[in-house]
């Protein structure tokens, strides 16, 4: 099974490559190739140690936001299908903001922790009304949530130590306590927010491919305080996650292959 991992920026892409490639990364003879795609995105095949990970893993830096993520993921999915080697799983990965758990009845996701999605939700796709926000589904069309396969979510959480919960996709990063409280009230199971997951999941769904989101928390969701962000620590955690998650994805690939045989 081929696995497509979609990130927003190159730093996230490289963190994933370091984790997925393991000891192979840094070997001059095994340096990953960069394949240009429309929109200046790069598809970077990972040099993988035999038996350590599914047979083929490609990591794509598609750009920031759900539209760029959807366009990049869809392009890669189409290219793979036309080449006769379609992807069996798409993973949206990177860093993101974590919701605190105080007063919400959930543990929360502190800086440095990992979150795996059991739901990928478009938090701001809908309409504002005098009575409050209405998701697009309440307007009678579209979708606002994708649910990854439960066995895969469970396996990834066990392998990485990630917290399981909803990951919100926003087009504008939360920068105030008021907005954070509003999102937490509407999505009580939310552990993290980022900007690409729903776009990736929409592209995957259009191709009949399951999607998953895996985030390393770099900052709390709320008032914007760059001094409190720990981007380097989050990227390190992301690398560790993709090193640890290899057996879970390999097992999932094997199950998918057996089911299709």
From TrEMBL:
Gene3D superfamilies: Nucleoside phosphorylase domain (3.40.50.1580). It comes from the Bacteria. The keyword ATP-binding does not apply. It is an enzyme of class 3 (hydrolase). It catalyses: futalosine + H2O = dehypoxanthine futalosine + hypoxanthine. Pathway: Quinol/quinone metabolism; menaquinone biosynthesis. Keywords: Glycosidase, Hydrolase, Menaquinone biosynthesis. GO terms for biological process: L-methionine salvage from S-adenosylmethionine; menaquinone biosynthetic process; nucleoside metabolic process. Its EC number is 3.2.2.26. The keyword Hydrolase applies. Residues 60-225 form the Nucleoside phosphorylase domain. One of its GO terms (cellular component) is cytosol. NCBIfam families: fut_nucase, PRK08236.1. Belongs to the PNP/UDP phosphorylase family. Futalosine hydrolase subfamily. Catalyzes the hydrolysis of futalosine (FL) to dehypoxanthine futalosine (DHFL) and hypoxanthine, a step in the biosynthesis of menaquinone (MK, vitamin K2). This is Futalosine hydrolase.
